[in-house]
Amino acid sequence: MSADHLTRRAALIGAAAFLAPLTPKILLAAPNPSPSKTSLIKLDGNENPYGPSPAARQAILASVSEAPRYADTTIETLTNQLATHEGVAASQIVIGAGSGELLKMAGLLAVATPAAEVVASRPTYEELPVFAQTLGLKVRWVAADTEHRHDLSAMRGAITQLTRLVYVCNPNNPTGAAVTRAALETFIRSVPVSCTVIVDEAYIDLADQPGVATVAALVNDVPNVVVLRTFSKLHGLAGLRIGYAIAPAGLAQRLAALSLTWPNATGLSAAIASFNDHDFLKTTRAALTGDRAKVHATLDRLGLHRANAQGNFVFFDTGGPLQRFQDRMLAEGMKVGRHFDGYDTWARVTIGLHEEVDRFLRALPRALSGH
After folding, report:
1. What is the pTM (predicted TM-score) of this model?
2. Domain count for the chain
C-alpha cells in the first residue's frame, strides 16, 4: 500500500472521528473519552467542555478548502445573520477575533483623550482594564457589592470628566454574579455621552436569574453603549476566536476602524453553523446550568459562602488560603482557577463534563478538610 494511500486513509479516519458525535445527546454524553483517574481535569479556564456542535464540526472540516482565500464573504454572511437576530442593521455589527480583540479595540477608543480614564469593577475580566493601563490610561477600580456584583452606584460615582470608558462584565467573571437588565439600563442611561459603556455579555446565554438579560436593544436609542458577545463560551469555539460587538452605527464604525487583525475563515464558518444549531445549544446550556445548580446545592449543603454564579463556573469561599485548596485539588487530579484580588480564600471552578463535575464534588470535602 502506498504512503499516499495511507495518508489519505489516515485523514479520512481523523475526519470521521472528528464528526463521530453527530447528535447533541451523544455529544453531551461522551464528546471525548472519559477522563481516567490519573488524567488532569482542567476546571480553571471557563472553557466549554462539550466543544463545537456537530454542525460546527462539519463546517470546520469544510472550511479547509477556503483556507487560501480571505474571508470577506464569510464575514458578511455572519454579520448579516447576527444583525437579523439582534434586530439591528448590518452596520451595527462588528466582528472580531474573539471578544478579546474587541475589548482591546474599545481601549483604543479612549486614547485620543489626554489623561483619559477607565472605570471598572474589581475583580472582573481584565482584558480591557489591563490593556488600558498598557496604553497609559488610568483605571479607576470600584469594589464589588456585597453580592459580588458590579456596584453600579459606586461606579457611577467614580466617573469623572476624564472618564471615556466604563467596563461592565455581566455576568461578571470571576464572581459569576449579575446585575439585572433594569438596573443596568438605568446605569447606562445615566452615563454622560462623552463616556462609552462597554457591556461584556460573554456569559449571558447561561444566565437564568430572573431579571438578568441582555441590554443589546439599547444600541438603537443610546448613542454610547457597546454590547459584546463571543462564540467562545456556549458555542464551544474558544480556540477559533470569534466574537462580535453590537453598537449604534456611528460608534460601530469608529470601533471597526480600530480592528487589530482579521477573523479566520474556519472560525467564521464554525460560528455561522453553530449559531443555527439551536438544538445543540439548548442541550449544552441545559447540561452546564444543570451541573452548575448541582454544584451550588452542594456548596450550600456544606455551608460555604458563594456568589450566585450565572456563567459556566462557580465562585465560592473555601474557608482557607486559595493556594492550599488549589494544591489539594491538584492532588485530586483537578486544576481550579487562580487568585483574584480581594478574594484570597475564594476559588473559581469551571463546570466540566458530568463525570468531571461528579469527581469534583466527591473530592471537594477532602480538599476542604485536608484528608
Report:
1. 0.90
2. 2
The residue that leads in pLDDT, 167 or 36, is 167
Tell me which of 7-11, 250-254, 261-265, 330-334 is least confident: 7-11
Alpha-carbon dihedral sign for residues 201, 205, 208, 214: positive
What CATH number has the domain bearing residue 83? 3.40.640.10
Please, which residues have CB within 8 angstroms of residue 361's CB and are 6 or more apart in sequence?
A: 294, 295, 298
Is the distance from CB of 207 to CB of 171 less than 8 angstroms? yes
Of 213, 245, 275, the position where a domain reaches its end is 275
Instruction: State what percent of residues in the chain have pLDDT above 70.
Output: 89
- Does residue 145 lie within any of the structural domains? yes
- Residue with cell string 474571508: 71
d(CA 184, CA 51): 31
Closest to 43 (Cα-Cα) out of 315, 321, 323, 371:
315
Q: Which three cell numbers stand for residue 261?
A: 487583525
Residue in 252, 331, 240 with CA at minimum distance from that of residue 89: 252
Tell me if 279 sits within 8 A of 24, measured CB to CB: yes
Question: What's 33's DSSP letter?
Answer: P
Q: Are residues 269 and 284 in the same domain?
A: no
Residues 309 and 339 both lie in one domain? yes
Q: In whole angstroms, give the CA distance from residue 138 to residue 276.
A: 41
Following DSSP, what letter does each residue of 212-240 receive, concatenated?
Answer: ----GGGGGT-TTEEEEEESSSTT--GGG
pLDDT, tens digit, for every residue of 67-111?
A: 888 888 999 999 999 999 999 999 999 999 999 999 999 999 999
For residue 35, the domain's CATH number is 3.90.1150.10
Residue 314 belongs to domain spanning: 21-52+278-369
Rounded-to-integer distance, Cα 269 and Cα 272, Å: 5
Q: Say if 110 falls within a structural domain.
A: yes
